[in-house]
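Researcher: Let's try something more involved. This one mixes different molecule types, so please make sure each is placed in the same coordinate frame as the others.
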Amino acid sequence: GAGVSQSPSNKVTEKGKDVELRCDPISGHTALYWYRQRLGQGLEFLIYFQGNSAPDKSGLPSDRFSAERTGESVSTLTIQRTQQEDSAVYLCASSTQSTTGANVLTFGAGSRLTVL
Amino acid sequence: SQQGEEDPQALSIQEGENATMNCSYKTSINNLQWYRQNSGRGLVHLILIRSNEREKHSGRLRVTLDTSKKSSSLLITASRAADTASYFCAAPSGGGYNKLIFGAGTRLAVHP
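Model: All components are placed in one shared frame. Result:
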């Protein structure tokens, strides 16, 4: 597609339920990132995929969070047993793998998660 | 942990004035980027400056980089109400410089 697509755009769930957020990157972009942004805050790095390499999961806040990506296509971020502090906008971004070590990110519009 | 940290956290100016935002980072980098965010959703890339560059211009934007002080600044000249947004610096972290870490951002309000 022309841009990074995220779904759902808004999700309201009850505490304790599992949620799945989807990201469809720009075709040909080998790198994919997930960030979390709480209201009025900056972006918190969650996870980074690069091609078929092992993902960098160093930003995942707990074992309730996981993400998958098949090849260079769609990625799914899963949050199990959601808590109220998980309420945030989850942003996905993709980029080409720069040969000069400077990845410029294209962001999706985000998925706003509200946990009641 | 944050690689980039901006100041001020918030900035309020009148149209036509210049706006300056600063960013400091912790580890060595090969580039630093600035992004803009409207309405708390997706970010848009503004400008990238490489570690061997000291200054870069793009339209009304001017970015400087001082690697000795591990700091960067973004200057928006002749600001407009449409420049109202949050501005974030992002610096790479980790081996390969591919993981971008963002600061907390500067919220800019430009009043007509």
